[in-house]
Amino acid sequence: MKLIIVGATGFVGKEILSQASKHPKITSIVTVSRSAIAAPEGVAAGKFESVVVSDYDQYTEEAKKAFAGANGCIWTVGLTPPKYMALGPEEGKRVSYTATLAGLQAIADSSPAKPFRFCYMSGDAAVRDQSAKLEGELAGFRLMRGDVENDVLAFAAKHAGFEAASVRPGLITERAKLEASREFAKGHGWPTIVLEDCVSAMLHMVVNGFEKDPVSNDELTALAGRI
């Protein structure tokens, strides 16, 4: 399997790269980031390619060539609620929504394999019903993330061979920090998930197929426990 990892220098992206490099069914990895990444230890240079983009909504023809024949992608680029609030709705939408759809189009233009599975890492608070009357300062953020999910599914439906699903983790944390993270998250009403569990579940779905959409925080944890 040839896997594309978008946002490979981030907290989650690094763990995806680490696990993917050891996965017996993943034979080729393409990372997408704004700075170059070295091939993981044990991965032959010919089976790894680091694609550098100026931003995640900008893809050169060279980048598209690297995507050719890919079987799947895990998209990790997005914003946490605090970052969204700091950037504002216009820039927040560009980073989370516009870039995701631009990336999907770039992949579609590159002649990927069929089926091609796209796993979008969303968030626990996402709301797909765009007519929902939400309260609180994060109402716009929640609707925006749900809108990305909607349009990822719509894109897949319009492109033969594309399959898509969204995962909705809560606060992602290292296993050693789980208890402290749970206490912090409880005050915000967020669920928590261990980084390694979140990643192993996403990899399993991209490699073996999607059984449902969206996939909740607890469902990700349960799936990781069964692998």
UniProtKB/TrEMBL annotation:
<protein>
    <recommendedName>
        <fullName>NAD(P)-binding domain-containing protein</fullName>
    </recommendedName>
</protein>
<dbReference type="InterPro" id="IPR036291">
    <property type="entry name" value="NAD(P)-bd_dom_sf"/>
</dbReference>
